[in-house]
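Dear colleague,

Following up on Tuesday's group meeting, I ran the structure prediction for the two-component complex that the binding team flagged. I've pasted the input sequences exactly as they went in, so you can double-check that nothing got truncated or mislabelled along the way. The structure tokens for the whole assembly follow below. Feel free to forward this to whoever is handling the docking comparison.

Inputs:
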Amino acid sequence: MNAPVSPIERLQLELPDLDWITDQSRVARLSQDFSWFSPVLKRDLQGKNADIVARPRTEEEIKRLVSSCARYSIPITVRGGGTGNYGQAVPLQGGVVLDMSGYNAFLWVKPGVGRAQAGIRLVNFDREAQASGWELRCVPSTYRSATLGGLFGGGFGGVGSITYGPLAAAGNVLGVRAITLEPEPQIIELRGTEALLMHHVYGTNGIVLEIEVGLAPAHPWLESIVTFGAFDSALNFGDALAHASGIVKKEVCFMASPVPDYMASLAEYLPQGCHAIMLLVAEFSEEPMLELVARHGGTVTFRKTAEEVRTSNRTLVEYTWNHTTLNALKIDKTLTYLQSGFTAGEHLEQVRRMEKLLGGEVLLHAEFLRNLAGQTTCTALQLVRYTTEERLNEIIEIFRANGVRINNPHVYVLEDGRAGGDLPADVMAMKQRFDPAGLLNPGKMRTVPQQPV
Amino acid sequence: MNAPVSPIERLQLELPDLDWITDQSRVARLSQDFSWFSPVLKRDLQGKNADIVARPRTEEEIKRLVSSCARYSIPITVRGGGTGNYGQAVPLQGGVVLDMSGYNAFLWVKPGVGRAQAGIRLVNFDREAQASGWELRCVPSTYRSATLGGLFGGGFGGVGSITYGPLAAAGNVLGVRAITLEPEPQIIELRGTEALLMHHVYGTNGIVLEIEVGLAPAHPWLESIVTFGAFDSALNFGDALAHASGIVKKEVCFMASPVPDYMASLAEYLPQGCHAIMLLVAEFSEEPMLELVARHGGTVTFRKTAEEVRTSNRTLVEYTWNHTTLNALKIDKTLTYLQSGFTAGEHLEQVRRMEKLLGGEVLLHAEFLRNLAGQTTCTALQLVRYTTEERLNEIIEIFRANGVRINNPHVYVLEDGRAGGDLPADVMAMKQRFDPAGLLNPGKMRTVPQQPV
């Protein structure tokens, strides 16, 4: 008698109609994300693969998969587009990678609100919503491949956060539909603050099925590059534009020299050694934006209307946020990056001080935004000329000693990253409720819920 | 031979087709504005009347009037809806009141931008723009009677400034068409920063014919009143809502007890002694707004959808900004008011400190907004139990000694008010260029331009 020998095989037999991926190279690829941006994570996460990947297309398929995994105690790692940088999608203890990209229906759009299944790619969400005059409030630079569930589970915000703040700001996420990882899975709608307890914990405290988000008016966005001869002029222009309440905008990205030199495919617009601001403002705000450029001594080297962007299918968005890092890594493999948050009001001073202290080794790439408290400030995704892990940690400590918050992107355990210590009790309570057996990518969260007696 | 004896009579003879108002009581009424809010201005401006009022309907009529006045050296005082509080529309040395309300065509609307003649009432501008999905970014509570030219010439911002900042923030006013007061008047388009040199100087350095403004998406605005038992809870809720980047909003008004008790027509929604926040948020932001209310222990006592507001033709807007003062004055004639600006970041502390120091005599009514620098803070239009001018000035000094900026609304000379001293050189240069003979409401501006040699 040839009884199935492993829980994974039992799973496949029990759910033969599911779209399974078993080919080892494909499974390996679907067990990776962009954590290779970090030489540390690349080393630490090497070889961590799922046993199998499932790509369900319906809620019913997800429910059956989840039920079986709960009964056989098989770990599940939820995956969106695999564009995360923290090993979000890397299964630490094997099991099933739950690839959500097939569960991708756009559900509805109303004025200011839209809802879709978690696996929808952001570009597709926007295409649907824009037909009604609306679009996502903030998207990562990876919007072509990233999913809505991935943005919610592992993202922060991005292009648009200069107006709407991070995804976690009240009103940006209105609700999620989530499923418990239990033999008899429950499907529950969480609203507002409660929904946000599943945000940015990488799918470790619940599997999200649908997401309802606040939308922004889909303005025609003009894309421009403005270059400057001096670091301070570029920084001050970026800050002034970021604070200009009457200039409607979606993106203000500052690349200090020599970062622009790495953007090879834009070289004709970025004179060697320049400091550059890449920006998206509404076309109707171009005139006041240009006045601001002139006042700060900038030069507009690139200008594309919304229509030109649409027809060319190329956008500056794919040079901002972590695409800056990606583009630089294409040129110089020895680079890595950091993520830092500056104190609103002191941010310009902090940026200048750090440039003085570490310029040359740490290359400034800042993104202006409204923080969770609603203040206009900047964050940075600095490029770092990587030498050793020790030096990287030294650099992190220098930032921290200067009052700059670092969200270390070179660790993969939740408590070591942005959470910076214990996870909040309400986040853990959600874990207890939605993953009582601790099967969601075990190891990603150090703390595990109390087992029910 | 009966030759005309006065320049005014000559003016009438020269321009017989103009819509002249000569009836003394009507001229007197059209020489007044809402400066009676201030007992000091009421006394100081008493009896200051024009000799005649002209109400032109075309640019050509304005041009001929201006030319004649220049030739006969007749002062002109420009008037919009007469809703100002600083004696903007009060002619200090007689002459002609140029009532712009007949010059009121809506010119055009494009995505994010609209343009109209200066005399258009704001309510009519919005009606036209809203048909295309757009509306004014900020309006005063007097939007039904105030004109676009009046808002530009004598206003600050208002409902909407919580998102777009004051009218003076770059991008809110894109351009104006203005006419010089000369025998051969020139008509000139001023853009951006240059246009703003004519902003908030009460029509003393140029006559504005048309105004082009940045527009906001016309969202369906929900109107709510939230009441609180404690001053601090209401203040903190207002501040949290003001800072909530993901909650789309148009108005956050804080009336500390006993101010709500004066809003007689809303008494059923304002329990005696309550502290109240009146707010407009987009209907799609209601859910996160209500979560914020719950977190701060507030009670929603009033809720009207955009459609309910539209059909009832009653709006909370007409209880905010200086309508709060107006409503309170209906109940208690001994009240007057102040205008103050708090320092962003320290504003809550300053508000609490001033309440402790002067509560009872100065009744807090604050309006949250983004200031010119783009920071979220609040301004206040406090009610003051008026006793004497000396005590009023003492109160002003107490505010100033505590770091709170006061724009004294009890003075009528420009340099004594918000300008606080000399007018900027570029504002004066504009005066020189557009009113070389100093005929625009002489006396309103203490400094007069150099006469050309």
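Chain A is about 30% helix and 20% strand.

Cheers,
M.
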